[in-house]
Amino acid sequence: MISKLIELIEADCDQILLESYGLLKPIQNQHILITGGTGFIGTWIAELVSYLNKNYNFNTRLTLLARNADAILIKPTSLGRQKNIILKSKDVRNIIDLDSDINYIIHAAANPDNREHSTNPLRVIDTIVHGTSALLEKSTLLGGLNKILNISSGMVYGSQPHELNSIPETYIGKVDCSQINSIYAESKRMGETICAAYRTQHRLEIVNARPFAFIGPYQLIEKPWAINNFIRDSLMGGPIRILGNGDTVRSYMYGSEMAFWMLRILISGKSGHNYNVGSPHPISLKDLALKVSNNFSPLPAILSRNGAESDATHSKFIPNVDIAKKDLGLEIKIDVDDALRKTIEWNKLLV
Amino acid sequence: MKKKVLISDPTLRDGNHAVAHQLSAKQIESYSIAAEAAKIPIVEVGHGNGLGASSLQVGLAAISDREMLETARKHLVHSKLGIHVIPGFATINKDLKIAIEIGVDLVRVASHCTEADLTQRHISFAREKGKEVYGVLMMSHLASPELLVEEAQKMESYGAEAIIIMDSAGAYLPSDVTERIEALVNALSIPVGFHGHNNLGFAIGNSTAAIDAGATIIDATARGFGAGAGNTQLEVLVAVLDKLGFETGIDFYKLLDASDLAEKEIMKIVPTISSTSIVSGLSGVFSAFNKPVERISKLYGVDSRDVFFELGRRKIIAGQEDLIIEVASNLSKYPQKVK
Predict the structure, then answer these.
(1) Chain B residue closest to A310 (CA)?
(2) Which of A190-205 are b and which e, b meaning 16 or more Cβ less than 10 Å from the residue's Cβ?
(3) Does residue B257 sit in the same domain as residue B281?
(4) N or C: which end of chain B has fewer CB within 10 A?
(5) Residues B241 and B301 reside in one and the same domain
(6) So what's the pLDDT on residue B1?
(7) Helix (H, G, I), strand (E, B) or coil at A30
(8) Whether residue B319 sits in one domain with residue B257
(9) Which domain holds residue B103?
(10) Buried b / exposed e across B77-93, counting CB within 10 Å, b at 16+?
């Protein structure tokens, strides 16, 4: 079963890299540190690099740093057993020193789970703010460091205004800093500001990625997001329960594609610039539930459970990715149907 | 088209408070059969304080959680079987897993109104098991509308599919309910509900105020069978809702039959608004404290009304029953100081 799961991931990597691996050559023979290295983003980037090593002789070394990096050993992946991958268990806030030969850093240490934001807001703030400061401070000592990719969040924009069809990087955003549901967004905004400070004071090369919504293997279906819940409900035989208004609009990017975009931004993104990462193709939760259900037989029923009609219930959250396209030639290759099919196939095997 | 209100009936759970948690399997069976026949959408079953709560401190139940739930499950086919879960009383491994194995449909995870953080693991676990999950904020009169919204948003983030606020002490006036439900409805994207108690005679009025303010789920029990002065009386509520033009999907005649049966077979005394209950409502003390307060006040030779008002001043909540002894003891020693 694990070998089949690994095959699926390799097929995903092959699909995304076949015609474009050459664009990633700058990381050949380089050492990359990924903080939050065992999370969804870190794991997918590691899978892509591992595939490049195996199939294109990239000889790229990876250090995956996480509070419990050994957790990757129980994931259905061979990442924990590869000679080019070092697992380092450490809280990013407590970093004492970094390997002196590190060439690139991807800073992905943060927990996007909004349950954690509600229950442990102080820890969320501390990890993002002090974790970013601690990492950048130690980075100033690295002689061979080329660039840092700070994984921020699309949440830094706050709610998407109705008049915008999608959110461009130039939108300054609007977050109510006094609300508890702004904890993650405000922390990520501060994280970007800390990056700006290190750019100017220490001349570090830092680029920000602002991720939106993703789907794919390694994203736990227990996470409290609509698409995960729809898949989990369906795997359990249904019904799919849509919480809130079914007209809520989101968009979803597949894991392998996200990882490719992140590496491209790391390599070719301009220091001081911000890049949205996500799918620009909107889909309502109602349509999403329908698409998920179509992957199962018998078809699970779809129930709606919404409160009162309000602005919050009609929200949309779609990135504008024109800059990624114009500056880096990035485009979506895996549509939501394919992303769902792949994710569901992987999760069915896992279950 | 008539607007719908979802009725959740905790007769076999809140009612357990009224009989010191002594509901028998036979009583649970007969009311479950009647509730199923009346098409009551949700029937909540268990110890008064919910799953895993049977204990010396809050009262030992006559039968185990398993027996209660299995008995009800056998007879509830179309009606959903609900449970009340207070983290601390109910643990995931020892209690919730078993309840889910037995086949409960709805898990209502409750906390004191300012402690929603405690519900994260239980809500998440029940959702992961594919169960329908509500978040319940108890003693909600002790929190401002703004604070209730914050706590409800936490529960929503954990995966709660509806939020119920409980007037556990029967302390609300309709305007209090309107203010809180409106705030919740405006801030949440999931349905909001109300659970009333009748200490000040407002259980029905508060429930309709909640509906007017946007609530779509209302708790009510047969004859108001529940803690203290009792809950919102189910058969009256359904009649009133019908008159107001709301649809509940309940068979009214069969509901009246179920209430008659409940009065005859499961209630020693039909709840009334006793003097103690009025004081409990006025002082904002949890309705289920009536019996221990009466008993302990008698033991220490103090006026139970004084005990209630002192407990209310201290904002005592369920689980702090031992404080009743402290208050009664202090009153007996230093009556003027405590007053």
Answers:
(1) B186
(2) bbbebbeebbeeeebb
(3) no
(4) N
(5) no
(6) 75
(7) coil
(8) no
(9) 3-265
(10) eebebbbbbbbebbeee
Q: What is the pLDDT of residue B287?
A: 80
Task: Examine the domain organization and report whether B86 and B141 are in the same domain.
Answer: yes
Of the two residues A181 and B174, the one the predictor is more confident about is B174
- Residue-wise pLDDT tens digits, A185-199: 999 999 999 999 999
Catalytic residue among B17, B21, B75, B84: B17
pLDDT, position B339: 46
What's at A81, amino acid-wise?
A: R
Q: Is residue B313 part of a domain?
A: yes
Residue-range domains of chain A with CATH: 2-219+252-280+318-333 (3.40.50.720)
- The answer to whether B171 touches B141, Cβ cutoff 8 Å, is yes
Q: Could you report the predicted ipTM of this complex, rounded to two decimals?
A: 0.79
Check if the beta carbon of residue A318 is closer than 8 Å to that of residue A249. yes
Q: Kindly determine whether residue B117 and residue A119, on different chains, have CB atoms separated by under 8 Å.
A: yes
- The last residue of a domain, from among B235, B265, B295: B265
- Total domains in the fold of chain B: 2
Helix axes A255-268, A2-17, angle to 10 degrees: 50
Q: How many CA atoms lie within 13 A of A194 on its CB side?
A: 21
Q: Tell whether B194 and B216 lie within a shared domain.
A: yes
> Does residue A309 carry a pLDDT above 80?
no
Asked if residue B319 and residue B209 are part of one domain, the reply reads no
Which two tokens mark A195?
């990056």
Residues of B within 8 A of A248 (CB-CB) are 189
pLDDT (mean) for B63-92: 97
**What residue has token string 């490049």?**
A52
Q: Which residues of B touch A (CB under 8 A)?
A: 116-117, 120, 124, 127-128, 130, 132, 150, 153-154, 157-159, 161-162, 185-192, 214, 216
Same domain, B103 and B12: yes
CATH number where B232 lies: 3.20.20.70
Nearest-Cα distance to chain A for B36, in Å, is 22
Model confidence at B336, pLDDT cuts 50, 70, 90, reads low
CB contact under 8 A, B120 and A233: no
Active site residue B141: no
pLDDT at A308: 64
Pair (B219, B288) in one structural domain: no
CA separation for the pair B114, A182 (Å, rounded) = 19
